[in-house]
Specification:
Layout: E1 5-7, H1 13-23, H2 25-42, H3 46-63, H4 65-78, H5 82-89, H6 91-102, E2 112-116, E3 124-132, E4 139-147, E5 150-157, E6 164-167, E7 172-177, H7 191-201, H8 205-213, E8 221-226, E9 231-237, E10 240-244, E11 251-254, H9 269-272, H10 275-285, H11 287-290, H12 295-302, E12 326-335, E13 340-345, E14 357-358
Helix pairs in contact: 1-4, 2-5, 3-4, 3-5, 4-5, 7-8
């Protein structure tokens, strides 16, 4: 199985969004429907979701007007209202708002990221991307050119402006969700838009961190920024932004808990999903495999299944409600020197040399 690919022909944000919305309308509508179901099961009303999405759109327009225009263009192309597309882009913020309002707890799951900086070779990366299994058909691979000569390629969800990706300036990003006590229902700039703006504007870790610091957020995440020779995990929360460098061995590992000593005391994700620590330990124990030049070998080094081992490769428990079911939807490596991604549809347990999709 492969993910659908779309290449934008438009550079102007509104026109690019409208083209994307028109061409991918069925997938965007299905994704919106899936998130509407998720928000409902998690405990939100339709009026709450709309209010949070409209707030996210307002904050986005103030921080990055072109990205807000692109969201409006997607809505026009897909036959939706802008707040509906904003809800897809702000799904992390809406889920954090639901959590802040109701105290809802999601099930065990989520992503694991590894970056290794060899002494004489470009960065070697791999991550699993876990999400709710009823949204497994949401991802698309999207190529766009936000300005002449600068190309962005991103693994994202239909209607969302970016997630994991690379640009032709030689920079890439991995993406993991976090939760912090400072997360709030006062919705801010969506973290997915931060990833997109990094891909549009940054060529260095320092530039990426500066973009992250410029956004007022309401939900937490970590964007691991990678170039051929440098990397850092940029931990983002309403309480602040921290930059986590690789260790002296050139290894940078991140799951779903804060590593920064100032932000870590506010950790909330790991209190509900302690498997994140098991996954971090599993990655550390398999650094030799994660350092391999071959991406398939790196993916296999990640392989571990719960409940007896670390739940790196997730499979849904169909007896649970949709907000408690997790699946490793994709396994992804970045090739920042070539400006491309290699993507496998599913978890590491099904990776072979033939299952990679190069984008």
């Amino acid at each position: 199985m492969t993910f659908p690919v779309f290449s934008s022909s438009q550079i102007e944000p509104s026109a690019r969004g409208k083209e994307f919305g028109t061409r991918l309308r069925p997938r965007i509508l299905a994704n919106l429907s899936g998130y509407t179901d998720l928000f409902t099961v998690a405990g939100a009303t339709g009026d709450q979701v709309r209010a949070w999405a409209e707030r996210a759109l307002d904050r986005s327009a103030a921080w990055a007007p072109g990205l807000a225009d692109e969201i409006a263009g997607i809505a026009a192309g897909a036959g939706l209202e802008p707040w509906q597309v904003a809800a897809v882009n702000a799904r992390t913020e809406i889920l954090a708002a639901i959590d802040a309002t109701t105290g809802a707890i999601a099930g065990e799951g989520e992503c694991s990221t590894s970056v290794v900086l060899p002494d004489a070779a470009p960065a070697r990366t791999v991550q699993t991307w876990d999400w709710h299994d009823h949204l497994r058909d949401a991802p698309v691979l999207w190529e766009l050119e936000p300005r002449p000569g600068h190309v962005v390629r991103t693994f994202t969800e239909a209607g969302s402006l970016a997630k994991i990706g690379v640009n032709t300036a030689g920079l890439g990003v991995h993406f993991n969700i976090l939760r912090h006590r400072s997360d709030t229902g006062d919705v801010g700039v969506p973290v997915h838009l931060i990833a997109r703006r990094i891909l549009e504007e940054a060529a260095t870790v320092e530039e990426a961190a500066g973009i992250a610091r410029s956004a007022e957020v309401s939900a937490s995440t970590v964007i691991t920024v990678v170039t051929a020779s440098e990397a850092a995990s940029v931990e983002i929360s309403p309480a602040g932004v921290a930059v986590i460098p690789p260790g002296p061995d050139g290894v940078l590992l991140h799951c779903n808990h804060f590593l920064d000593p100032v932000l870590a005391p506010g950790e909330r994700h790991a209190s509900d999903r302690p498997g994140t620590y098991d996954r971090q330990r599993h990655l550390r124990a398999n650094v030799a495999g994660l350092s391999r030049a071959d991406l398939t070998a790196r993916a296999h080094a990640m392989l571990s299944h719960g409940p007896d081992d670390a739940p790196v490769c997730a499979h849904p428990d169909l007896t649970q409600p949709i907000n408690q079911r997790w699946e490793t939807v994709a396994t992804i490596g970045l090739d920042v020197t070539a400006g491309r991604l290699r993507v496998h549809h599913g978890g590491p347990c099904r990776v072979t040399e033939a299952t990679w999709q190069t984008f």
